[in-house]
Amino acid sequence: MISLRPRGEHAALRRAAARVGAGLITLSPWQLQLRDDDATREALRDATQTARVVVTSPTAVRAARSLLALHARPGQQWFAVGAGTAAALRRAGVAEVAAPSRMDSEGLLALPGLQDLAGTELGFISAPGGRGVLVPALQARGARVVRADVYDRVAITPTTRAVNQLLALVAPSVIALSSGEALETVLAALPAPARARLLQSSVVAASERLADMARQVGFTTVAVARSARPQDLMAAASAHAPAAAKMARPDNRP
Fold first, then answer.
1. Taken in order 77, 118, 50, 65, is the CA torsion positive or negative?
2. What does the DSSP 8-state code read for residue 64?
3. Which residues contact 172 (CB under 8 A, 6 or more apart)?
4. What are 72-123's pLDDT values in tens digits?
5. Which pLDDT tens digit goes with each residue over 142-152?
6. For position 251, what pLDDT does the model report?
7. Quick check: is 208 in a domain?
8. Does one domain contain both 160 and 141?
9. What DSSP state is assigned to residue 6?
């Protein structure tokens, strides 16, 4: 299995792969850096005072709660992209959180509370880039989006060890794809031989949109998982690419 998660965020996928006897190669496109400045605090304060608040990741929750105590105001609605983000919000002090069973941008946009947004102020707690379909879709429904970017994705170059492990692969490989931006960043950063080898991998994507993107950039074997959860990505890999479970066990653990 090949992970495109940020540096230091591979543990859950590594455990899911290990349960079926697969190894993990980590090709991190970036590392996460929490913001800590007055401008971000002010933006976050404004975002959390709106009628509805959308939070896009557990990291966004962690970054936000390090800047400001989180709690729901009377009548306020909070929304999370997935179960992990919702759980993080509850631990941070927001008791009622709506999250979709389909844990991606499309699932979030299907929630009843995010349909009729005409004249509504909506807080959006996230990071620059990523989840690129959400804000335009929410604005198209009439929301005035009050955005607070509380952390950054700092681009990094894939390690020499990870590149060499990728080039040395002779067993089938499967990419766990939960971010289109991550895939684009990794493809652009890899040297040509490693990029060519990566494009020989199968892909298990967290949504139909990501699956379409993978096909557009040159992947030929693409399946769609039930969600971006590591266990769902691994289940899709096992179902659609059974040989993935017999991969060699490179494990660079950055």
1. positive
2. H
3. 201, 202, 241, 243, 244, 246, 247
4. 999 999 999 988 899 999 999 999 999 998 777 888 999 999 999 999 999 9
5. 999 999 999 99
6. 58
7. yes
8. no
9. P
The whole-number average pLDDT for the span 193-214 is 93
H or E element at residue 42: helix 38-47
Give CA 27 to chain center in angstroms: 14
Question: Are 176 and 236 within 8 A, CB to CB?
Answer: no
- Written as one string, the DSSP assignment of 67-116 is HS---PPTT-EEEESSHHHHHHHHHHT----B--SS-SHHHHHTSGGGS-
Distance of CA 235 to the CA centre of its chain: 18
Helix, strand, coil share (%) of the chain residues, nearest 5: 40, 20, 40
Same domain, 166 and 136: no
pLDDT recorded at residue 70: 96
The rounded distance, in Å, linking the Cα atoms of 248 and 22 is 7
Contact in structure between 34 and 148 (CB atoms under 8 Å): no
Is the domain of 119 the same as that of 180?
Answer: no
Could you tell me if 76 and 141 lie in one domain? yes
Whether 129 is in a domain gets the answer: yes
Both structure tokens of 198 = 């990566």
In our burial notation (b when 16+ CB lie closer than 10 A, e otherwise), range 213-244 reads bbeeeebeebbbbebbbbebbbbbbbebbeeb
Which contiguous run of DSSP H or E holds residue 139? helix 134-140
In terms of residue numbers, what domain contains 50? 37-152
* φ, ψ dihedrals at 86, nearest 5°: -60, -45
Q: How is residue 150 written in tokens?
A: 């509380």
